[in-house]
Amino acid sequence: MMLNTVLPILLFAALALAVIGAMKRFAMWRRGRAAQVDWIGGLLAMPRRYMVDLHHVVARDKYIANTHVATAGGFVLAAVLAILVHGLGLHNRILGFTLLVATGLMFVGALFVAKRRLNPPARLSKGPWMRLPKSLLAFSASLFIATLPVAGILPAGFGGWLLAAILLLGIAWGVSELFFGMTWGGPMKHAFAGALHLAWHRRAERFGGGRSTGLKALDLDDPQTPLGVEKPKDFTWNQLLGFDACVQCGKCEAACPAFAAGQPLNPKKLIQDMVVGLAGGTDAKFAGSPYPGKKIGEHSGAPHLPIVSLDGKALVDAETLWSCTTCRACVEECPMMIEHVDAIVDMRRHLTLEKGATPNKGAEVLENLIATDNPGGFAPGGRLNWAADLDLPLMRDKQEADVLFWVGDGAFDMRNQRTLRALVKVLKAANVDFAVLGLEERDSGDVARRLGDEATFQQLAKRNISTLAQYRFNTIVSADPHSFHVLKNEYGAFGGDYSVLHHSTYIDQLISSGKLNLSQHQGASVTYHDPCYLGRYNGEYEAPRSVLKAIGIEVKEMQRSGFRSRCCGGGGGAPITDIPGKQRIPDMRMVDIKETGAEIVAVGCPQCTAMLEGVVEPRPQIKDIAELVAEALVETTATRPAQREAVEAV
Amino acid sequence: MSDIIRRDPRAEWIARNRLHPLHSSMQSSVTRWLSAAGVTRKNPHAVGFIGPNGIKRIDRSGAQQSSGSKRSSPTAEKQLPLHIVEQPAFHICVVPDMVGGRLSSHDKDLLGLAHKLAGTEGAVVAVVFAEHKENGFDTAGVDRILHFTDAVFDGYSPEQRVQALVRVENQLEPRHWLLPDSRNGGGELGRRLAASLSERPATRVWQVADEQSIGRAGAGQQDLHRPAPRLILASAECAEPISETRHQAQPMQLQDAINPSRSRIKDLGAVAVDPALIPMAEAEFILSGGNGVSDWSLFHQAAETLGATEGASRVAVDDGFMPRNRQVGATGTWVTARVYLAVGISGAIQHLQGIGACDKVIAVNMDANCDMVKRADLSVIGDSAAILQALIARIDAHRQGGIRDAA
Amino acid sequence: MQPSPMDTTALNVVALVSIGAHPTSGRPRRAEQDARAVELGLRLAGEAMQVVHAGDARQEALRGYLGMGIKQLHVLEQPAQADVLHALSDYLLDSDAQLILTGSQAETGEGSGMLPYLLAEQLGWPIVVGLAEVERIDHGIAHVLQALPRGQRRRLQVQMPFIASVDNAAPLARQSAFGPARRGELTVTAANVCPDQLFKEGQLQPARPRPKRLKVIKAKTGAERMKAATAKASGGGGQVLKDCSPTEGAEAIFKLLMDEGVLR
After folding, report:
1. Percentage of the residues of chain B whose pLDDT score is greater than 90
2. What domains sit in chain B, N to C, each tagged with a CATH number?
3. Between residues 177 and 216 of chain B, which touch chain C (CB distance below 8 Å)?
4. How many domains in chain C?
5. Each residue of A297-314: pLDDT tens digit?
6. Residue C182 sits in which domain range?
7. What DSSP line would sit under B85-130, residue for residue?
8. pTM recorded for the entire structure
9. Mutation for testing the B interface, residue in A365, A585, A615, A616 having most B CBs under 10 Å
């Protein structure tokens, strides 16, 4: 019988081709630099990562989650059984029935895939991806019919050679898309590369509910280590693998603030460009949305060619890389857990450290950081001027304190000084044993690092760490989520491990331990804007809300809040590199805020404050959580004795 | 007229006599003064004016200036005492910048310093090149004037001028050379002279006292204290200008004519620089637009008419009306313009920081309560387009008038 | 001005650089104007330009110049507070340089700005002060633009070889990158040391702030002095014209502009 002889040949030929393709693909990834991975452990952990962690992200969209479970589950089962049943000829009825169920499941899933593709949203890539549901349907339907005789539902040889030929054609189409298409660069590549990417992910800590958001350090002591990524092969090989895992679902594109603002960045296209780079070729075949304002088909690259050309066109334009606010919305949304921000910062590192091509005010800011330890170039001696009348305890005098209050560079900014003073008021009201570093504090290095200047970052970090090492304290509290993130997650690589809290978390703790006597907030309706570096980077969504609740504020949530919060546009040095777009990110965020009808927007970050206050009035007022809490403070007995003394003295 | 206060008994009598026909004209127009006891005194009768209906009106807007002029005879030009140096014991040579053919305030400060060094014995010699329009050398403190009018000194001619100064050096052997340490030529000429005379100058000097000079050193973070050398390049405000004496300003001649050799640098003349292309940080006069500007083509036209360099607030740049390199403020460019005309800018703190170094700020704004108006030396509240149009018309009228006057 | 067709890459350009000090922190850095001189040199001669420093080769801030993309920086070893003039002029006499670029004045030490003039005197070359741009060079004659205050420019013709000092009107120096700075080479040569006489008699002190000149009150009588002393200090809100016609407003602005002399 024709089917029984040709089908095994077809299946095994496709499998063999798939294996060859897989080896070629693997060799392509391995052009990247070495990376430390847990080869076996990763593979063993992969199914769990796939089914739990990845599903977690996918399940935010129930429709596609269920569709994917049906299609992918059906396919994996069908593929294994097809090899057993049709490939090895195990014509067992039970196996046959199971295979029928699997293909049926897959068929149903594929129908839903096809439905999504009827009128696909802009974020989805078209091109070969439009073909995929048809391939899935052809494969599952053909295999279903071809298996009916095995299950004994139809007599063997039913339909004659014509049906057999049609079925063979259908299965051949299916296996070419689903078996070797998987390793030869078709849409199904995502399954193969994705599975291995999950196994050998560069941030294995992210799985199992963990969080890994700190940038990885560059080894500056070894002159052989490339300073960032110039060519695709300068990525570590598992980063290249990660790019290859992209399913082009465009969730990142939909979340990206720069893309929405019309700046020339589209995270999906960026990852696809990296795939072009690792395989060699042009971006002409890309079937999704372009970088706003840039035509498709004009850029090309290869593993050994520079990604960015400063005076011409290469794979990616520099302004694309500088548009990113490092808000991590793309990473948060990515069902394949691809690390876009890492890649962007890696490429920025090359531009800054090797080419000296940080755009606009970037060079000046970095020079200021080197020479004055703050990005504004202010005299370092003025770091504590904002608190001249507050009589802040200095670590140098106290040597020891419960809380080290990390002031941050907001100390030089007149607006942020109001926040800082409010926070000091709160700390004093709660009788917290705290101290500041004063003039010994330096910029945390956040901006330098996001601008790609790893050298300056490490210099600042090492000096801060050696300063901090002189003193004893239990917790660092900062009103700046950027400093908070860097101190908490990025100093560890240089030997600085601290317990660090954002001021909202700390105030929340003070409130729940009853140390603050608070009245209720008066009047105005309030919404809350989640700072990226507090929320997505560090998972703190609750504390700010519970602080606001404690002062009687019911937060009018924005549509995009929590992990979906839209960036204010102030992160990653974006206001410094200032890549023009069609509109401004803070203006878009202000529209989100205005939709809630709130009169006050509570924030927890000096950058957000500055960006949102930069929106032209009339607009809601912007207040830091510390300011709102300070306003609600009830003068407690702690201050009364002083007053009485004063009266007596008179 | 001397400053001695003299009583006029008749005038006092008229002032007391309300029935005298001249009574009202003898009333002092002072409505508010400080009494000897330190108490503010007011004369309510002197406030206001008689309106057209014969009713007394008081205008509290401040627009009304008190009309009664103080009774005083037209002040004659004060004749300051003449300072005469007959036989100078030594000379102090000053080479003023003569920006625009006139002594600049920097030059006058320098002449003041020269007199401190000259005392009563020495003579201050001003060495002036090319044609000038100054006629106040005497009151600025010039005892002797050495005027080189040769054509070789026209335009930019530092090498020839140094040769002339070397002649002066040989003939007068001045005790000190004083030049303004400015970008208007003095700084350069002084250093060229120093190199040529092998004198080590004191530069950026802001004080000379007791044979010691103090000048800024390095990037301005340090002062260099040293015995005052012969050649001093002094900053502006190094001393008070002469104000209480007149000087001879007697012309001098060099004994032998100078014959400067050919220069290796040739002046091909000034290059026309479009005010729009001048870097903002350097521009002298900036017209800056913000959110309140509705008609940008009118704004550009105004900038052209005014001959001003264009600037913008952050919002105007964000909205795409102006390029980013035109943004003024702490996050843009810190400007040093002498006159800053802000149209429709409410004055965010960053913006106000950026114009901190501006001398005169003019605000045109709809909102009288905005921070820019608080900062401004002159604010006009109203529609910016109408005011800009009126300003363009006013300047055009002035220019045409100027042409007519010249013709 | 059209970009010059001539090829200036064959030009032998030497930039003299010093250690600067950041204006607010005072920390060592590449000096602002010297870096602009290097930038101008790089634009004229590319990487073939030479960069020379007379001083201490161990100073890390020197790498700031290497970071601009220069492969090599020559250091003429000199102790602190030495007069580097002779070391430099000896070096330059042997260097067959055609154009020497320097900043206008050092950011540390005396900062008198005399060095380029003294070098010009010693070498017998012309000096151009405030070079903003080299327009073209033909037959040993350079056409250059000189920067004047307030953004103005003057065109000069000058004989090669010459010395030029640059100030803040010259093109902004490119960013100094870590990679090239780390790779760049500092070649150290010993040079004649000539102590500076200045610091025997003079001394450096932290800068004293100079008060803004006050309006001088030449009061002859006690009453006048009293009046001057009690007069409201100037500043604190200017004139505000409300409810006036645009013409009146324009007239007021016009008057102020005329008084300030910015209208031409």
Report:
1. 40
2. 9-53 (no CATH), 83-252 (3.40.50.620), 276-406 (3.40.50.1220)
3. 183-184, 187-188, 191-192, 194-196, 200-204, 206, 214, 216
4. 1
5. 999 999 999 999 988 899
6. 13-201
7. -SS-SSEEEE----GGGS--HHHHHHHHHHHHHHTTTSEEEEEEES
8. 0.85
9. A616
